[in-house]
Amino acid sequence: MTDDSLIKIKKEPVRVWDLPTRVFHWTLAVLVVFALITSEAEGGLFWTHLAAGYGVMGLVVFRLVWGVIGTRHARFTDFVRPWAVVRDHIKAMLRSSLSRSMAGSVGHTPAGGWMIIALLAALALLIATGFFAGDEGDKGPLAHYIGAWLADAMSEAHESLNGLLWTLVGVHVGGVLFVSYTTKDNLIRAMWTGRKEQIAGEDIPAAGIPRVALSVTVGVVAVVAIVAAAW
Ligand code: HEM
Ligand code: HEM
Q: Where are the domains of the chain?
């Protein structure tokens, strides 16, 4: 083995997920579980469900902004790929012949990228219907602006979207475990530490966070929080 080939197989950890993306992910996972548990609370304790819901809303707003101005692999343009790429990726996954280079991504895989869009869309709809939901019992903060029939329909939609969310989460976690196993890339550890092993020849610049991007994001989330609180 020459010195050259030794260098080629050498792997070293590189930063892929920035801190805000990781904090976003694990806080979101905890808060949606909390929102599910507190949805059982009634009357005097129902505010806990609304508080969890507002927390999730803040996180989703954060992620939408960060997806535009965040670091390289957090951006939507980095992981939202055309259908042809997603199809080839899924075929490779089913043949169990997926490697990270075949997936064509150091960040989210092509299929994983669309799963993230689906999760964010389901959460956005869940939040929107929650604001107007209200059957005989607890009501969302805007439910009294619409008729009882519509509020009831919003409740039904809220409940169905809750079912959709947990189905997507199941597929998401299954997909993460499957890809981690087939590519030998521990995605869960990477989402915790932010680092993946660099493969020779891959171009992965460290994910430095531009201060202006962080300031704009914090600003937008703060404005949304203040408007929501004032309401
Ligand atoms: C991740 C976020 C959320 C999850 C997982 C979630 C889940 C649920 C579930 C499972 C129920 C019980 C449905 C039923 O048995 O009828 C419920 C009820 C409710 N949720 Fe949420 N929710 C979320 C966010 C929100 C938000 C943001 C709001 C309002 C701002 C909200 C307002 C309500 C209201 C008013 C009810 C009671 C009315 C009803 O029964 O539909 N939820 N939620
Ligand atoms: C419980 C509800 C969960 C929700 C709503 C959720 C949602 C998400 C979202 C939105 C992302 C995109 C991250 C970003 O770029 O901002 C993501 C990525 C990820 N999630 Fe989750 N997640 C959940 C639970 C979990 C759990 C339990 C695990 C671990 C088993 C997990 C492992 C991961 C990993 C490894 C990634 C990165 C995938 C990749 O490398 O492309 N998630 N998740």
A: 20-230
Query: Residue 22 Cα, ligand 1 centroid: separation in angstroms?
Result: 25
Pick the atom of ligand 2 nearest to 30's CA.
1
Percentage of the chain surpassing pLDDT 70?
Answer: 86
Ligand 2 site, residue 63, Cβ cutoff 6 A: yes
Distance 70 CA to ligand 2 centre (A): 17
DSSP string, 93-137: HHTT---HHHHT-SSS-HHHHHHHHHHHHHHHHHHHHHHH-BSSS
**Position with higher pLDDT, 2 vs 167:** 167
User: What pLDDT was estimated at residue 2?
Assistant: 41
pTM (predicted TM-score): 0.89
* Domain 20-230 CATH superfamily: Transmembrane di-heme cytochromes, Chain C (1.20.950.20)
Q: Is 207 in the pocket of ligand 2 (CB under 6 A)?
A: no
